């Protein structure tokens, strides 16, 4: 698949979105086990489902753009190092 | 260990409370563990399995906490009452380990 | 079942499998100590669900 490589700032923003969604999934799952009323519980549960679906979309986007490679660790490390180098140069 | 089990079984109603609490905590941990695992998976089939398990884990946790509220073991709306239950449980736990 | 799963994923699955196996063993053993029928039923449901979950996780790992 031929896709344009992401610009550095787009890369940063998309990665930040992925991390924020991960954080929201963790927080929502904690909150669900503390909710007492049915109304709050149902709401949080739906929010958790949405967050998981959203996480999948962002992850898929980053994977399609070649930023994530879960199946090839050496390749992923190379990518991470070049990203870090680029960040240092900014 | 055996006398410990005998002691526990000798106080049946309390055993129920202890076991329900243990299950509640386990189910809470399950919800957290599955949520974390979902954010670490890349394979769609595995993701779907984990999502299904997470839904089951939330159901189990919900049922258990409702059961415990009905039984008066768990008072999320009343801190004072919860403290009384917890202190009584702590006393029993201490007395079990002391003799 | 799936021929290509990530290292990270397989570690997560291993951890969940260990966790679930522990839960299942505990629920099965402790069921015998429980007196309240409603709690017993909840535990039986948990045992059934946990067994299914363990089978699912095993399927992804083997």
Strand content of chain B: under 5%
| Strands of chain B, count | 0
Task: Supply the number of helical segments of chain A.
Answer: 3
**Greatest contact pair?**
B-C, 35 and 32 residues
Let me know the average pLDDT of chain B: 88
Based on Cα principal axes, name the global outline of chain B: elongated
Helical content class of chain A: over 70%
**What's the helix-strand series of chain B?**
HHHH
Q: Which class best fits the helix and strand makeup of chain A?
A: mainly alpha
**How many strands of chain A?**
0
* Assembly state: heterotrimer
Termini distance of chain A?
29 Å
How do the SSEs of chain A run, as a string of H and E?
Answer: HHH
User: Would you tell me the overall average pLDDT of chain A?
Assistant: 91
- Any idea how many domains of chain B? 1
Summary of the model, kept short:
The complex is a heterotrimer of chains A (90), B (99) and C (62). By secondary structure, chain B is mainly alpha-helical.
Features:
A: mainly alpha, 3 helices, B: mainly alpha
Q: What does this entry look like structurally?
A:
The complex is a heterotrimer of chains A (90), B (99) and C (62). Helix content of chain A is 77%, strand content 0%. With 90 residues, chain A is mainly α. Chain A has one domain (10-84). The mean pLDDT of chain A is 91. With 99 residues, chain B is mainly alpha-helical. Helix content of chain B is 85%, strand content 0%. Chain B has helices at residues 2-10, 12-38, 44-71, 79-98. The mean pLDDT of chain B is 88. Chain C has 62 residues and is mainly alpha-helical. Chain C has one domain. Chain C has 2 helices and no strands. Chain C has helices at 7-31, 37-61. In chain C, α1 (7-31) packs antiparallel against α2 (37-61). The longest helix of chain C has 25 residues, at 7-31. Chains in contact: A-B, A-C, B-C. Chains B and C meet through α1, α2 and α3 of B and α1 and α2 of C.
């Amino acid at each position: 698949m031929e896709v344009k490589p992401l610009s550095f700032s787009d890369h940063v923003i998309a990665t930040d979105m992925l991390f924020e969604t991960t954080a929201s999934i963790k927080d929502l799952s904690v909150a669900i086990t503390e909710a007492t009323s049915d109304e709050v519980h149902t709401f949080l549960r739906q929010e958790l489902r949405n967050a998981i679906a959203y996480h999948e979309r962002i992850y898929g986007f980053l994977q399609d753009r070649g930023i994530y490679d879960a199946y090839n660790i050496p390749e992923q490390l190379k990518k991470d190092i070049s990203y870090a180098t680029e960040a240092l140069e900014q | 260990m055996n006398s410990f089990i005998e002691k526990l079984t000798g106080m049946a109603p309390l055993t129920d409370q202890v076991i329900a609490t243990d299950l509640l905590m386990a189910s809470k941990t399950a919800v957290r563990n599955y949520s974390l695992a979902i954010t670490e998976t890349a394979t769609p089939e595995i993701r779907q399995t984990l999502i299904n398990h997470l839904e089951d884990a939330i159901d189990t946790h919900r049922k258990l906490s409702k059961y415990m509220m009905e039984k008066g073991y768990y008072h999320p709306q009343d801190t004072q009452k919860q403290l009384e239950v917890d202190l009584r449980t702590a006393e029993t736990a201490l007395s079990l380990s002391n003799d | 079942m799936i021929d290509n799963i990530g290292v990270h994923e397989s570690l997560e699955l291993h951890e969940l499998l260990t966790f679930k196996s522990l839960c299942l063993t505990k629920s099965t053993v402790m069921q015998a100590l429980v007196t309240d029928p409603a709690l017993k039923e909840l535990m039986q449901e948990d045992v059934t669900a946990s067994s299914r979950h363990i089978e699912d996780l095993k399927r992804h790992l083997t």
